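Input/output pair, single chain:
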Amino acid sequence: MGLLSIFMTGIGLSMDAFAVSLAKGLCLKDDEVKYSFRVALFFGGFQAIMPLLGWWVGTYFEIYIRSFDHWIAFALLGVIGGKMLFESIKGIRSGGDADIPTECERDEFSYKKLTILGIATSIDALAVGVSLAFLNVSIIPSIIIIGITTFILSFLAMFLGKKLGQFMQNYAELIGGVILIFIGIKILIEHLSGLA
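Output:
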């Protein structure tokens, strides 16, 4: 798995955080840079920590499942990407207004709330970390790329959310799902063609 694939994985994984940041951007009134930086830091940080934890777990079990690890990576990325596709299509069909906050809460950018959202949007990255262990990918450059990618996209999404509202939210998840499924297929094809 090369740097381009890791970067694309980072984009795919960051789409949940991107979508949530768009919604959070609706609540921006003042201190835009401060709150955008805070949201991006939480999402980017959790998006980097979770693959590291997954990689650690995957490394521990790698010896037992080396012969079929590519199938696990393919299945994990396919399920995560498929879930993102399903959620985005469901949101688009419902008009995309189910998650629009009608009134922003006072603690919208509190550390507690951002921690919960950071964990929720990075659970998928935990599973991807397991896949990275099976593929013998160097984890430190990978989590740096994934974390920075998520940070930048979340930061930009806050401002886009303020300007464009809900319009882009479901489409972000759609794109992320397609990217992760594509990478899962690519991993499987590369491994199977290597056996031929």
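Helices lie at 3-25, 32-65, 69-93, 111-134, 139-164, 169-195. Residues 97-103 have pLDDT under 50 and may be disordered.
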